[in-house]
Amino acid sequence: MLRELWEEVTHNLKVGNIDAATDAKTRLEQRQRREAAARQETNEKWDPHYFSEQGNTYIYRWPLMGRIYQASSSPPNNNNNTTQSNSLASSQAVSTHPNDESSTPTPP
């Protein structure tokens, strides 16, 4: 669904039409702002699909390291890099600050 929202922006960037990409992005963001305002009026809580709120921080629900670790079906070999990566996967989450506009989730 997220890719569909940004399809026009992505296409125009790929073909080098920056003005059309900017216009498409502006329309998308305006729509998101209208939907956010409508939710606020009805006191509807926004539940972002990709992030979970933890205090003043948003945590990505499916961090890459966790997915890599789960995808490996064989036990770790003696390679220190693999062992370190697997131990990191079980202990780290990707955190983003809610005031960082580049990483905060936006409503569809």
Automatic annotation (TrEMBL):
Molecular function GO labels: lipid binding
Q: Low complexity bias located where?
A: 70-93
**Annotated spans, Disordered:** 21-49, 69-108
Q: Which SUPFAM superfamilies does the record cross-reference, listed alphabetically?
A: Oxysterol-binding protein-like
Pfam families given for it?
Oxysterol_BP (PF01237)
Give residue spans, biased composition: Basic and acidic residues: 22-49
| Name of the featured protein | Oxysterol-binding protein
Question: Which organism is the protein's source?
Answer: Dibothriocephalus latus
Lineage runs: Eukaryota, Metazoa, Spiralia, Lophotrochozoa, Platyhelminthes
